[in-house]
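Usage

Read records sequentially. Each one opens with the input sequence:
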Amino acid sequence: MKSIVLAFVFAMMLLTTNLASAQNLPPSTSIDVKVLPAYSYKADDGTTVVLGEVENDMASPVNNVSIGVSFEDDNNNVIEYKTGTTLLQVIPAGGKGQFMISSKADSSITQVSVKLAGFRSSPDKPQVLSISNGIVKVSDGLLFSVNIKNNGALTSANTKLYFISYDAFQRVVGIGVSEPINIDSGKQAQVSISDTLNPKARSYAVVAESDSYQSKISGITNIQITLPVMVSNTVATDVQGNAYSSIPVGSQVKITSNIRYAIGNSTQPFVYYVEVKQFGGQVDFIGKYEGVFLDTNAQSVSVIWTPQSSGSYYIETYVWTPDDIPLSSAGTRINLALVQ
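and closes with the structure output:
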């Protein structure tokens, strides 16, 4: 079994959303402006959402970037065709602009194809907005806070912040957008974004744009993670639930924990792992229990272990998704002394 280490396996951590599918779509290229591989999923309302980026490899900025998306069924029949634009009004030379385009609600849509539909040359938009003190807090969702400073000579009108989530393949899998604000010249403002957590997310970036100005896109490294499952009251008993005064070798030991999922109105499959180690660190046993969280009520889960030799042992417990994304930190360590 994979080492149960919650280091920045930020394999996050976390909570599944309603993601339905994802396609690795071939890039669509026109000159040096191209659509990068996109990501799609089925939303709760039945629409299909497509997220992606357009990369500008030209030596000058572009604007009015248009993306066309064909929403198709299993037989490649087009159910709906929609066009949209990048969220950034101007994509700087060497930069990227993100897009988010949704279909109508239709269960027959099972795949998408994405193409670049057009763009125009654009004057530069000065990158005089600076972003600092960005913190991502991850629990049952995403909360991002940042300071935006206007270093330009004019008021930064209708300033929006875009918070972008990327998966391990650097596809866009989430975009959060703030409400527009005005920032006077030389002043700064704090902006926060709450967004749905995508468990596929591995990294984050942020960029700001107003009517007159932009910031540079920058990665976020300050990430605070609070996992959504609590593990408590772990005990080791006989199979009837009676406490052992000492545990005989060859006897069955029932290891039980209470686990609780902090997110309401959501189902979440889980795997409860029990790892028994000798005090020297050698793993003696790994067991698991598979189940589903249906609500926020605590549930009791158990695994049976039969010790084969005397000695001193300890127990650690974890809760992960079936896809090996941690849902909890390690439960309280339980020490055991076995006698023959």
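Summary fields computed downstream for this record:
- The chain has three domains: 28-121, 129-225, 229-339.
- The chain is about 0% helix and 55% strand.
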